[in-house]
Design a protein that fits this description.
With 498 residues, the chain is mostly helical. It is 78% helix and 0% strand. The protein has helices spanning 7-13, 16-36, 39-44, 56-84, 86-104, 110-137, 144-169, 174-187, 189-194, 208-216, 222-252, 256-264, 274-294, 300-318, 324-352, 358-365, 367-388, 397-425, 431-460, 468-490. It is globular and about 60 Å long.
Length: 498
């Protein structure tokens, strides 16, 4: 019997480019979470308090679209990387990131903030498939779980450290927060230029048009796309956290027990919105490698379902989150669920992707973020403004809080049931499972197309002026829905890759 490799042996097996990529991920995520730890509050705070005075609903839309673009662009980024090389696309990505973050901190109108964040999102979207594709190409079945666990640990190390600096910088000026994020990204130019080297990959002689068509054909991989749709339910909960959880802490939670506990220890500390990200990331930093090792041999889909179940428990705890200790416990438990589910998801995608399309499939893997952000951020912002904000300071606030968070917990339960059903009936690659998945995805794509057409009508014809926000959402839905319909209809006779 072969002795399984030790954790130390597996760590030593990773090549240099694996570690260079992970360090770059640390800086990129530091920039992202350093900003997002306070973005929703900065945008909605009154101008007199140093904010920009936008409404929660408008910020929910802005965040939803920006995050969605962050997770759509990887499809293009993955295709470009396979054609032109990882390093070239990486240089473009970090440059756009630095410009986007810096510009955001110096804009004040809704339109200019939106535009600068879109530049940032484009850079982030190009960056994502390069790093995950590099890790996928430098790991194999025996060490992939640990490799993506380390990757996820680096993400959260950046998410832990950067908001601590944010807490300090915002005391001087909100613009310093964005400038710091720009600096993190500018620093990544150095390893990109001098240390990063493309991992071994099949050489591509295809034109960009051929590569793009090949990338689009992944929409016809029905089983793969169905898994992403079902997994997205969990990320609806995650993305609304960047808005509603922060506003909830600001408006409803008495943080004095935490502050007093630190004061008793002789530590001057005030629990504020940026520390939600610190709490989430700190939990993952402490436990990620241990959890990754524990679930190393566990089936990916079942592990993902377990993580989503822990996330559900976290939101049940938030339902009692007027007590700050329940709030803290809810964030911690949700974080444990996140670290259980998500690295296994990346590992799974990396293992099932065809050898010549690792970056492309990794690009599509981020579509969970499109669904999660478009629904989660918009839903979170709209529901918070209509269902929770009117209860600030009201005696029946606890009941309203419970209804709000239990609604999201119920959504998670539906997503878990869907993923377990996928494991039972679709995890095996067979003509029958592929045919069933194709029928379901044709229905999903049809629904997206219908919603996109409805949005497009209301954006351009239902009012006297064009509703550009709604029009952009319509375009995203029509591209994914219409493209998926066309490609899946043509590929029904072809087997899926998963």
């Amino acid at each position: 019997m072969t002795t399984p490799p030790t954790t130390t042996a597996m760590i030593r097996s990773f090549p240099r480019v694996f570690w260079v990529s992970n360090i770059m991920e640390l800086f990129e995520r530091g920039a992202y979470y350093g900003m997002n730890a306070v973005l929703a509050v900065y945008l909605t705070n009154a101008v007199a308090e140093g904010g920009l005075g936008f409404s929660e609903q408008s910020v929910g839309f802005l965040q939803g679209l920006v995050y969605a673009l962050t997770y759509v662009v990887p499809i293009l980024g993955g295709a470009l990387a396979e054609r032109y090389g990882y390093r070239r696309v990486l240089l473009a990505a970090v440059s756009l990131l630095a410009v986007g973050y810096f510009a955001t901190g110096h804009m004040s109108s809704y339109g200019t903030v939106f535009a600068s964040l879109l530049v940032m999102a484009t850079g982030s979207g190009l960056f994502k498939p390069i790093i995950t594709g590099t890790i996928a190409r430098t790991t194999h079945e025996s060490n992939s779980g640990l490799g993506f666990g380390i990757y996820y640990w680096m993400i959260n190390l950046g998410a832990f450290l950067a908001p601590l600096l944010t807490s300090y910088l915002k005391g001087f000026s909100w613009s310093y927060v964005f400038t710091a994020s720009a600096a993190y990204c500018a620093l990544m130019l150095l390893p990109t230029l001098f240390l990063y080297r493309d991992p071994e990959r099949p050489r591509s002689t295809k034109s960009l048009a051929e590569v793009a068509r090949g990338a689009a054909m992944v929409l016809g991989d029905a089983r793969f796309m169905l898994m992403i749709v079902l997994y997205s339910g969990f990320w609806i909960l995650y993305f609304q956290n960047f808005g509603s959880v922060l506003w909830f802490l600001r408006d409803f939670v008495d943080t004095s027990p935490v502050d007093n506990a630190f004061a008793w220890l002789g530590i001057p500390f005030r629990f504020d919105v940026e520390h939600v990200t610190v709490l989430n990331a700190g939990t993952i930093i402490l436990l990620q490698v241990v959890v990754s090792r524990l679930v190393q041999k566990a089936k990916p889909l079942l592990t993902m379902s377990l993580g989503m179940g822990l996330g559900l428990v976290g939101f049940v705890l938030l339902a009692f989150g007027l007590n700050v200790w329940f709030f803290v416990a809810g964030i911690v438990v949700f974080s444990i669920g996140e670290m259980t589910a998500h690295p296994k998801y990346y590992s799974y995608v990396g293992l099932v992707a065809p050898p010549d399309k690792k970056a492309v499939y990794m690009g599509y893997a981020f579509l969970y973020g499109v669904v999660g952000s478009l629904i989660g951020s918009n839903l979170g912002g709209a529901l918070y403004e209509s269902s929770l904000k009117p209860f600030i300071g009201a005696p029946d606030a606890p009941e309203a809080v419970r209804r709000f968070w239990l609604m999201f917990a119920l959504l998670d339960a539906v997503a878990i049931a869907g993923l377990m059903t996928f494991h039972r009936f679709f995890s095996t690659d067979s003509p029958a499972s592929n045919a069933r998945a194709q029928k379901i995805m044709l229905g999903v794509y049809t629904l997206l197309t219908g919603i996109g057409l409805w949005f497009a009508y209301h954006a351009g014809f239902a009012t006297d002026t064009i509703q550009y926000k709604t029009l952009v959402q319509a375009i995203i839905m029509l591209v994914i829905g219409g493209g998926g319909l066309a490609i899946t209809s043509r590929s029904r006779t072809h087997p899926a890759h998963v």
